[in-house]
Amino acid sequence: MGFEISKTIEEIGLVPVVVIDDASDAVPAADALKAGGVPVMEITLRTEAGLDAIEAVAGSAQDVLVGAGTVLSLDKAIEAVKRGAKYIVAPGFDAKIVSWCIEHDIVVFPGCVTPTEITMAVGMGLKAVKFFPANIYGGAKAIKELSGPFPDIRFIPTGGIGLENLKDFIIPQVIAVGGGWLCSRKNIIEKQFESITEICKKSVKIINDN
After folding, report:
1. How many C-alpha atoms does 160 have within 13 Å on its Cβ side?
2. In whole angstroms, what is the distance from residue 180 CA to residue 21 CA?
3. What is the pLDDT of residues 61-80, one digit of tens each?
4. Which of 41, 88, 106, 202 is the most exposed place for a label (fewest CB within 10 A)?
5. DSSP letters along 52-72, please?
6. Catalytic residue (one of 34, 76, 86, 130)
């Protein structure tokens, strides 16, 4: 299952980082993403509604691949999976979370930006990691440099990416590009779901044209 999920994320090429304040907005947001050609979402656990939102999408929008983001503890990872998360994303590297995910065949993308962190990820058998915040840690240039000593690891850059610089990250070392621009918190709160769909369509076009 893990391989199939990673392959799906790579095929889509984009991972919307979604902050939900009201769980009732989760399914409409998922539908908007799918309509824009991006049937995947990383619902963060930054709000109280995060877990309920994951459960809602897992139950009612099963053709959208839903994962949990901003996972800061093993307890949260376990709860997110129980609620229906198909993959786990963490801002940093937590060996407990990574070990548990591997043991239970759950795809996990820990945040790794230094050679030491990447070495730990490689040592545990991971093939892809989150690169966050990408704009602070050197962007696409840093990813290309890191691929020298780590040719078998790939990245999901997130942070400081939008329509204006998305094409810079469409490089072989990147499995997919993540970010909040695809499904902004503001658009969700204001229920501007058509805007989410249009931004996704524009992003997909940039991916396809490069």
Report:
1. 13
2. 14
3. 989 999 999 999 999 999 99
4. 202
5. HHHHHHHHH-TTSEEEEES--
6. 130
Higher pLDDT, 1 or 176: 176
Strand duo 87-90 + 128-131: pairing: unpaired
Percent of the chain predicted with pLDDT > 70:
100
Rounded Cα distance between 209 and 183, Å, is 21
**67: which 2 tokens?**
């994962």
Residue 209 class from Cβ within 10 Å (0-12 exposed, 13-18 middle, 19+ buried)?
exposed
Q: CATH fold of 2-209, please?
A: TIM Barrel (3.20.20)
Predicted pLDDT of residue 160? 97
Does the annotation count 4 as an active-site position? no
Q: How confident is the model at residue 3, as a pLDDT?
A: 79
The question of whether 11 is a catalytic residue gets the answer no
Instruction: Report the distance separating Cα 78 and Cα 153, nearest Å.
Output: 25
**CB of 112 within 8 A of CB of 93?**
yes
pTM: 0.97
* Residue (of 149, 132, 135, 168) closest to 44 by Cα position: 132
Residue 1 has pLDDT above 80, yes or no: no
| pLDDT tier, 199 (very low <50, low <70, confident <90, very high otherwise) | very high
Q: Is 85 within 8 Å of 68 (Cβ atoms)?
A: yes
